[in-house]
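TL;DR need structure tokens for one chain.
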Amino acid sequence: MADPRRRLLLDVDTGIDDAVALLYLLATPGASVEAITCTAGNVGARQVAVNNLALLELCGHAGVEVAIGSEVPLEIPLVTTEETHGDQGIGYAVLPPPRGHISGRHAVDVWLEAVRDHPGQITAVVTGPLTNLALALRAEPDLPMLLKGLVIMGGAFNHPGNTTPVAEWNTHVDPHAAKEVYAAYEGLPVEKLPIVCALETTERIECTPAHVNAVSRAAGAGPERLDPDEAEGTRSTSGNAVVACLSDALRFYMEFHRLYDQGYIAHLHDLFAAMVATGEAGFEERFATVDVETESPLTFGQTVADFSGMWKRAPNARIVTANDPAAVFDLMVRRLSDLARMHG
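>> reply
TL;DR here they are.
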């Protein structure tokens, strides 16, 4: 009998939007988070692992393996972004120190065991730099065929970058890894190509205070106020631990976006990628051949997509070109309010 679960392997650099994506996945019926592997990006890899363990325990999912992979990019020095996500990576949210422990296994070993034990059943979701995936591909070149599918949050194609004028953050942290990953998928069957959620669609997922309030009310926790006129660093007074975590994390992210004249909002890039992985988010896509610039100081980290076959190379990606933000937030409110009601 076919396994009715959607088995997911997460590779993350948690991160506020990674944290929201994880909450969504833990609240989604039929989604089974098989393991979480951690890479350096938003914060260092060990802090990423601690964040994931604490979030799992907050939501009653202690026991999921959390493993660290590479703590630095393949070829360049690590740059983290505490100014965007806070010193701990989850904004103003403060969670109890986790009781669980970081796995003794390396992330690559977790990846390889998962796909070899469950060939064709694992969907991988990478919401951070592609370092661990590149290392796993070096160890197992057949990895793309062993996976059921792959969803990547990263890149910017017909859209400005959010780190340089042309480069998106995850790719810019480790462009050499991204280049290796896309090269590994060139010429494979189209159903195996990674679904790429890039900035042109993920920046449409603009979370507002009204969305957080809706989660809290639907959870039975009463109104949750995120007022842009309040002092920076104001903390939630909610008695619901899940709502308070969500609110405190997103307040920091909204303050960051406002600082850069984007409004009192939070782009939930990784939440959309997670919904694509579960099959709950509708989207449109185009096949393309993607390459990554790793030499030019001017365009370092830029993702370039050939949609029309000018390079005479086979496609290696399915790039999301349209999505439905309103549907994403309707689903977020349903899932996270259920989670808050159960575990808050």
